[in-house]
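The data layer described in this paper is built around a simple, fixed record for each protein. Such a record has a labelled line for the sequence and another for the backbone structure tokens. For reference, a complete record is included directly beneath this paragraph.
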Amino acid sequence: MGKSATRPNLDEVSLEYVYDLFGATRASVLMRDAGIEETSVEAHVIKKTDLWQICISSVMRYNDEGHGALTRELPMNSWSMINASVSQMPNLSKGLKKFVELVPLLQCGINARITTSGRDLKLSIFATDALSNNTRVERYIEVMSAYFQSFIGWTTGRDWLPVEIRLSSLLDDQEGSILTGISGCTYTRHGTGVTFTYQQSDLDLHLGVRPVDRWVVYETQIFNKVISGRVTRQTIEPSLIKNVKALLEEGLSCQNQIADRLHISVPTLQRHLAHIGTNFREVSREQRSKRLLLLLATTMPLDDIAQELGFSDRRSLTRASKEWLGLTPSQYRSQIKDTCS
């Protein structure tokens, strides 16, 4: 295989990437099984979604989750057992530490470590001295870590968590990367292996939000959504706002309560709302003002309305009513009475 004729877009990698990852013989067999003929692939590129399917086919055909790239074969479900153990940890921080603890037990030439940088945590996945640092190994690390990060998104109930990815300098940008193009991530390329950076605000996220035994059913769907760059603010935030509004309607009023119910941190909640040009105060104001209008149309005492809307006292309700409606609660009720009489 020669170099790609065209640089892949964010949904693609080059055929060189595929042949290097699996080895020429195995790649040819897997592509033929998937119905992908090299001569029929325009500009010598392949969709990342197709690459994912080829990876699954490789494991099924050869019973090797290492795709022939490691110091030994990894029987099917080797990484799944690690994922299951990670998901049993109480939060993301402890889950990543469990991952680092378990990876060496595979004895396949891959290792991992955690470092801290300011308030952020970095997870690095890399080849040990027992495994040569070559492009095939680097591509395997990318694919395996993409799988793991997709699982982390699954078990936390989120689509994607790392905010920065450092890629290997042994690989050529012209070949594409299975990890590039993910919304919300920034990228650098130096050193070897892959390093993911997580924000401190996400490290307390609960694991096991989604049942691990269902991951195999949804793994392709989650991977396709993440890797093809469709996890964008257009798909995340509208759903988030809908959930925030629903919780506000239930009577929750503070960010801490709502973030906890959504299994995210307050800074993460604020960040996602900011992505679409709003904030918690504005969303809360909209929903609470709607509820205030409904409650003022009843005979409920103002002290009870204040409590229902999460205000500390009646004076706070009055101030909010003047801000939201331009009238005090009593003035608004008088206005309704005059209109109806």
About this structure: Residues 71 and 108 are 5 Å apart (CA to CA). The radius of gyration is 25 Å. The chain has two domains: 75-227, 233-340. Residues 230-236 have pLDDT under 50 and may be disordered.
